[in-house]
TrEMBL record:
Source organism of the structure: Paracoccus spongiarum
Top-rank EC class of the record's enzyme: hydrolase
SUPFAM superfamilies: Zn-dependent exopeptidases
Protein name: N-acetylmuramoyl-L-alanine amidase
Lineage: Bacteria, Pseudomonadati, Pseudomonadota, Alphaproteobacteria, Rhodobacterales
MurNAc-LAA domain residues: 235-390
EC number: 3.5.1.28
Domain of life: Bacteria
One Pfam family cited in the UniProt record for this chain: AMIN
Signal peptide range: 1-20
UniProt keyword terms in alphabetical order: Hydrolase, Signal
Catalysed reaction equations from the record: Hydrolyzes the link between N-acetylmuramoyl residues and L-amino acid residues in certain cell-wall glycopeptides
């Protein structure tokens, strides 16, 4: 009888719901709103990817007045995360999210035109569950919002100012980016297929400058013509312009089959001590650290201050590399097998400016060279860089209070 009772109790326990898990969390850094190609006769297709730490029940629908996409997530907690930090949030007029009711959270995207939900699904396999929603623009007659959606915004916070549209392109306050087209003048850089590295990266830098300027981001060019600028002068020009970020642009050549795809280089921390000594010897002390006069200090103290400044700068550079490679992967840009690498390039030595060297591709690779000479590919890569810079700048500003000063 006791055995029967134990068996019955076991069956009852098995039938009960599993112990409640903690709420699912949105991986904001991996999630994104992206543009899917061009809208030849209207707004471009959009895709929303929401990456979670576990799968959750969800529902998706459209509402009108204004036109909005609603995404409801059951058992998800979005508290403490800012909608404006979602990658690509500036593609829509406004975005907001918050707790709804009875265990549901709601995400609301104001859309710039009528759209339909072309597909929606949740992938629950590793590495992380992803809710993937594709939107396609339609004309007003084909727009089919859900009826009776008056409660769509109940209890939600005001919309995040994403900056979409004309007013939307406002950049983070006082953001200046230094663009550094490599080589130039008597140094053409790598050459292949009748193209030179110096010309290709200068063309790209000019196109990127136009897009950044349209977003309200200040741009300082280390060279704007086919002239030679020394490596040390490039850093000095960036610092004189008050740049927070330096992006050095290259398209090198390596023996056939050894390299292809975009690659981001960071200053190699193992070379810090040697680089610090070189900076002390080769620069005027007042030129080393903005706002810090090292005149009259001995070399050991100056080198120590440089290393101290680089601790935070290196982390900020690495953070931009993550933003950039993530965005390139999302947008289908071909990447090197090791997309982020370390190197002791001189233009990455600055102790007070976040710096990366971007190999847009390798001119020695036929496919990469074709991309670099293709205006459509360059426009896509320019958009990737502009989005990465904007997203990094917002994140960098949010982290500023936690950095050493």
């Amino acid at each position: 009888m006791i055995r029967v009772l134990i068996l019955w109790l076991s069956l009852c326990m098995a039938a009960l719901p599993a112990a409640a898990e903690g709420p699912a969390r949105l991986d904001l850094g991996a999630s994104a709103l992206t543009r899917e190609g061009r809208g030849w006769f209207g707004p471009p297709p959009l895709r929303l990817r929401l990456v979670l730490d576990r799968a959750v029940p969800y529902r998706v629908f459209m509402v009108a007045d204004p036109i909005r996409l609603i995404v409801d997530l059951k058992g998800a907690d979005l508290a403490g995360q800012k909608p404006g930090d979602l990658y690509g949030s500036d593609l829509v007029p406004a975005i907001r999210w918050g707790r709804q009711q009875r265990g549901w959270s709601r995400i609301v995207l104001d859309l710039p035109a009528p759209y339909r939900i072309a597909e929606a699904g949740q992938r629950t396999t590793a590495p992380q569950p992803v809710i993937d929603i594709a939107l396609r623009a339609v004309d007003a007659a084909a727009f089919a919002p859900r009826a009776s959606a008056a409660t769509a915004l109940r209890d939600l916070p005001p919309p995040a100012d994403t900056g979409a549209g004309a007013a939307a392109e406002a950049a983070p306050e006082a953001l200046v980016v230094a663009l550094d087209p490599g080589h130039g003048g008597f140094d053409p850089g790598a050459e292949a297929g009748g193209a030179t590295e110096a010309d290709l990266v200068l063309t790209f830098a000019r196109e990127l400058r136009e897009v950044l300027a349209a977003r309200g981001i200040g741009v300082a060019m280390t060279r704007d013509d086919d002239s030679f600028v020394s490596l040390e002068d490039r850093m000095t020009r960036a610092r004189a312009a008050g740049a927070r970020l330096l992006v050095s642009l290259h398209a090198d050549a390596l023996p056939e089959g050894q390299a292809a795809g975009a690659t981001v280089y960071l200053w190699n921390p193992a070379a810090n001590e040697r680089a610090g000594q070189q900076l002390v010897l080769r620069h005027d002390r007042a030129d080393l650290l903005a706002g810090v006069d090292l005149g009259g200090q001995d070399d050991l103290l100056a080198g120590t201050l440089i290393d101290f400044a680089r601790v935070d700068t290196q982390a900020r550079s690495a953070n931009f590399a993550r933003f950039l490679t993530s965005r390139m992967a999302l947008m289908g840009i071909g990447l090197h097998g090791r997309p982020v690498q370390g190197a002791a390039f001189s233009v990455l030595k600055s102790p007070d400016i976040a710096s990366v060297l971007l190999e847009l591709g390798f001119i020695s690779d036929d496919r990469d060279r074709a991309n670099l000479t293709d205006p459509d590919w360059r426009a896509r890569m320019v958009a990737v860089l502009a989005d990465s810079i904007s997203g990094w700048a917002r994140d960098d500003g949010a982290r500023a209070a936690m950095l050493r000063r």
